[in-house]
Design brief:
The structure holds 2 protein chains of 2 kinds. By secondary structure, chain A is an all-alpha fold. In chain A, 69% of the residues lie in helices and 0% in strands. By secondary structure, chain B is an all-alpha fold. Chain B is built from 7 helices and no strands. The longest helix of chain B is centred in the middle third of the chain and has 25 residues. Classes of the chains: A mainly alpha, B mainly alpha. At the A-B interface, α5, α6 and α12 of A face α2 and α3 of B.
């Protein structure tokens, strides 16, 4: 059972998420530069590459923002701002060790609801600037949402089913012995896929793809761009971190304290996602939609059925 | 505190509901409606029905996002990019809205509400699930089948290509002839 959390955690949570996101963005930048220009010659060069995203943020903040003609500025602003807000709100139920900012009784539904706000956010950011390419990006994300959401919901429901509770803390408690990833491998795999799709990451980066000149983000500049692309990183971090309490046993582990286990497991999942981005080509959404509805959704239902039978016979 | 939150959410819900009819852009109208529904979700949470409130937030967000997809599919106004209003048949709509509002308000004010018997359940989510899966099971099953039939019927009506286009007149083609190559089973 999660203990009560002090109020200052509310302020620490966003800062912590931003720090993790910056570290991961740095790692990704090092990998990207390595793929482009070869291995870094010295430690200093690697450090310069790793601080690239941070410098880019500062550059965007001082740069003159661009405006498109007849753009719907309030909607685009709301869209760009909503993405990080949704990520941080979703993270409220994330336990670090065995403590979360608020262990809501319906934590899993809460996470799902907040993550769905990203649909609205990306579409708004794509629609707002009155530009065809960003509009295409926004609509691509909706198509992607329709593709990933069904098996995703079933996967997180399966974890809740295994713990017989929607409370994230109890899902963690139920994994004191066996991790859910071990006896619900299909749900875990589907969750990892949808975590990437949620943050339009790796093979699912079509909404901000190169073929549409950056898609939903193409016309954003200045603080809007920082919020939107930063919010995407936050979303990736939160989605990856949520797989730890759901499937990887949360803070449970030998010897080390709970919070350290959470950090280690989250880092491992994130590192995997960042690595996977460079290994898998971008997927076209209509193809993925077919895969999710024809293969992954039935698979997730079968997985939920197996878990339900096990739980009923316990 | 609760009173303040109630009034804030209630006023926001009504104002953004009215704004749906004031905006001249489909996108603004759609998301104004979403804002209104999110406030309603907040009000439901305030009533102590956390689960229902959060589910309202979840369902309405996804629903309004899908509305944006329908904007492309069915509107004469591609992608909702051009100005248009939600004010067709303005007078009729206003009369219907007014009447419905009066009817509902009268119902709220004049219905003989029963006094609470017993205490609120410790876990309303659990009770809701028990009710849905117990006494209301038949209702839910019927509702589910009706919704599912509607979805299938809409897709059948909307799709241009049927199985004869895909598999030939005698349905004997070994490979489906689809405009988009690749995917499952091909």
């Amino acid at each position: 059972m999660a203990e009560r959390t002090p109020l200052w955690a509310v302020f620490v949570l966003p800062a912590l998420l931003v720090a993790v996101a910056l570290v991961m963005a740095g790692l990704d930048a090092v990998l990207a530069a390595g793929a482009r220009n070869g291995r870094p010659g010295s430690l200093r060069e690697a450090a310069v590459r790793a601080t690239g995203p941070g410098r880019e943020v500062l550059r965007q903040l001082v740069q003159q923002p661009r405006r498109t003609r007849a753009s719907d500025v309030p909607l685009a602003r709301i869209g760009a701002g909503l993405l990080p807000v949704a990520a941080v709100l979703a993270a409220v139920v994330l336990p670090l060790g065995f403590r979360s900012v608020s262990d809501l009784p319906e934590g899993i539904v809460w996470f799902n609801a907040m993550e769905a706000l990203a649909w609205a956010a990306v579409w708004l950011a794509g629609w707002g600037p009155n530009s065809a390419l960003s509009l295409i990006g926004g609509y691509r994300f909706l198509a992607q949402g329709l593709a990933y959401e069904l098996p995703h919901m079933l996967a997180i429901t399966t974890a809740a089913l295994g713990a017989e509770s929607l409370r994230v803390g109890e899902v963690v408690d139920a994994q004191a012995g066996l991790w859910f990833a071990v006896w619900m491998p299909a749900a875990f795999g589907i969750y990892l896929l949808s975590a990437m799709a949620m943050a339009f990451w790796g093979p699912f980066d079509q909404p901000v793809g190169h073929d549409v000149a950056g898609g939903a983000a193409s016309e954003l500049s200045g603080a809007d761009r920082v919020l939107f692309l930063g919010g995407r990183w936050l979303l990736l971090v939160v989605a990856a971190a949520f797989s730890v309490p759901l499937f990887l046993g949360g803070g449970h582990g030998p010897l080390l304290p709970g919070w350290l286990w959470t950090v280690l497991k989250t880092a491992a999942v994130l590192a995997f996602l960042v690595w996977a981005r460079r290994r898998v080509p971008t997927l076209r959404m209509d193809r993925y939609l077919e895969l999710t509805w024809v293969v992954l959704t039935p698979l997730a239902i079968v997985q939920a059925l197996v878990v339900a039978v096990v739980v009923l016979n316990r | 505190m609760n009173v303040a939150v109630f009034w804030t959410l209630a006023v926001l819900a009504v104002v953004s509901g009215v704004m749906v009819f004031r905006f001249d852009s489909m996108a603004r109208a759609t998301f104004s409606l979403l804002a209104s529904l999110l406030c309603v979700g907040g009000l439901v949470v305030l009533l102590g029905l956390d689960y229902l409130g959060i589910v309202i937030v979840l369902m309405m967000t996804i629903e309004m996002a899908i509305m944006a997809v329908f904007m492309v599919m069915y509107m004469m106004n591609p992608a909702g990019l051009m100005p248009m209003t939600m004010m067709h048949n303005k007078k009729g709509a206003a009369v219907v809205c007014g009447l419905v509002f009066l009817l509902l308000a009268a119902g709220i004010l004049f219905a003989p509400w029963p006094a609470r018997r017993g205490k609120a359940p410790a876990d309303p989510t659990m009770d809701l699930g028990m009710s849905l899966m117990g006494p209301q099971m038949l209702t839910m099953m019927t509702l589910g089948m009706a919704l599912f039939a509607t979805i299938v019927a809409t897709v059948v009506l909307a799709t241009r290509r049927g199985r004869y286009d895909r598999l030939g007149d005698d349905l004997r083609a070994r490979r489906a002839d689809d405009p988009v190559r690749g995917g499952v089973g091909r």
